[in-house]
Amino acid sequence: MPPDEPLVRWDWVLSHLDDPIGTQLAEHLRLSLIPVLLGLLIALPLGVACARWRRLYPPVFTGINVLYAIPSIALFFLLLPYTSFTDWTAIIPLTVYTLSVLVPNVVGGLDQVPAHVREAATAVGFAPVARLLRVELPVAVPVIVAGLRVAAVASVSMVSVAALVGLGGLGQLILTDGFQRQFPTPIVVGIVLSVALAFAIDGALVLLQRALTPWARGRAER
Amino acid sequence: MNLFAEFWAWIGRPEQWEGPAGIPVRFAEHVGYSALALGISALIGVSLGLLTGHTGRGGFLAASLANVARALPTIGVLFLVVLFTGIGIVPVLAALVALAVPPILVNTYEGVRGVDADLKDAARGMGMRGWTVLWRLEVPVALPLILLGLRTAAIQVVATATIAAYVGIGGLGRYIVDGQARREYDMVVGGSVLVVLLALAVAVLFLLLRRYGVSAGLRRRGSGVA
User: Fold this and answer.
1) Beta carbons of A39 and A151 less than 8 angstroms apart
2) CB of A93 closer than 8 Å to CB of A179
3) pLDDT by residue (tens digit) across B53-90?
4) What are the residue ranges spanned by the domains of chain B?
């Protein structure tokens, strides 16, 4: 790198806003959100089942802990021959990671529904499934969203690593536009946008939680 | 293709176990960088967590900084630091420390904050003050969460130390980089599986630490922030 190279060349940023910056940002958003959504789709039924049938939880919990210890970065490379350069190479490892955060939070959220709430719901005539969908899951929303926030922020930050297997949205910007050309501007842009994206998603999830738990409004903020 | 068979054949070749590119050397490099990064991160994360948790001041600031650091893309930090300091251990340590401090700091802070006020009253009633309360009460009670933070960080660090190979200083990631470049897939599998095994070993190590380090009365509590 030339010694007088500035950290950010604004003219490069302005002339590359659409491509690659915009396209890689959109790609990054897509690759980091799909695993969180898939993770939630799997974690909700699995967590509900574990909360209901307690004997299921210890083996599931152990399995999740093992999955958690399997690094996404190693999975990216192990999956390459099976999924090659398709999105699945990034999506599968990240989904596995989000499961390790989401399942314990779904179970934990359902566990902390107070017994009197459950009994009151039964008393006013909720059948088990309706009680689950309309009372227990809504009460568990704050804990589930807390898990979603951790999973989403981690996912946004981890997608970049998939640049090493030729995917990865902003990671591509960092690796091919920045590092391989010894050019710091795309690296700085990639880092800043990645952090901004994580915060935007985190903020959106907080708003989602407010919208889903209207009864918590007006109470003291936690 | 059978992953297990590939790995077994690769690891079984005698030349893998000798010389400067052999498994023992690469393994030692990998564990060395990881341990150094984790040590630095623990020093920063645990001390800041204890300080903010014990005094109750600066906790919000620390948590906010930890959140920003958590969102940092690791390879961005790595490659940016490389451009300024050149190839070497500094960029790898910078990237790994940025990765490891947030979970350690946040869990330590939450652990110390979460110590029951009644317990603190009791400790004061027994004549403990300031540092004594911290060391004799808050740290032992917060230990499950502190260990959880360290475990999360350690697993991520041994996994991510793989990137050291991308800036030319070896480690198990070397097999992944070289294998990809030479299109020798068994080598990529070998390196990846060794990283997975190392991460699992770290998980087991922390299970044992929790088993023998945490007071029996506290072991059932503490779910914490991952």
Assistant:
1) yes
2) no
3) 888 888 888 888 888 888 899 999 999 999 888 888 99
4) 3-12+23-218
In this complex, is the C-beta atom of A6 within 8 Å of any C-beta atom belonging to chain B?
A: no
Cα distances from B42 to residues A16, B29, B48, B109, B110, in angstroms, run: 40, 20, 9, 13, 15
CA–CA gap between residue A201 and residue A48 (Å, rounded): 25
pLDDT at B100 over 90: yes
Helix (H, G, I), strand (E, B) or coil at B184: coil
Spell out the SS3 assignment of B124-158: HHCCCCHHHHHHHHHHHHHHHHHHHHHHHHHHHHH
Q: How far apart are CA B184 and CA B193, in angstroms?
A: 15
Q: How far is CA A131 from the centre of its chain?
A: 28
What band does B220 get if pLDDT is binned at 50, 70 and 90? low
- CB-based contact, B34 to chain A, within 8 Å: no
**Tokens for B188?**
């990529």
CATH number for region A10-213: 1.10.3720.10
Compute CA A53 distance to the chain's CA centroid, rounded to the nearest angstrom.
Answer: 27
Candidates A72, A150, A191; nearest CB to B72: A191
CATH topology of domain B3-12+23-218: MetI-like fold (1.10.3720)
B196 at A interface, C-beta within 8 A: yes
Cα Rg, chain B, nearest whole Å: 20
Residue to mutate among A29, A92, A187, with most B CBs inside 10 A, is A187
Structure tokens at A150: 């951790």
Sequence ranges of the domains in chain A: 10-213
**Contact (Cβ atoms closer than 8 angstroms) between residue A96 and residue A105:** no
The yes/no answer to whether this complex scores an ipTM above 0.90 is no
Helix ranges, chain B (H):
3-12, 23-55, 59-71, 74-85, 89-113, 117-125, 130-133, 139-160, 173-182, 185-213
* Residue B154 Cα, gap to closest chain A Cα (Å): 10
Contacts of B223 in chain A (CB under 8 A): 104, 108
Give which of B176, B185, B173, B181 is closest to B3, Cα–Cα.
B185
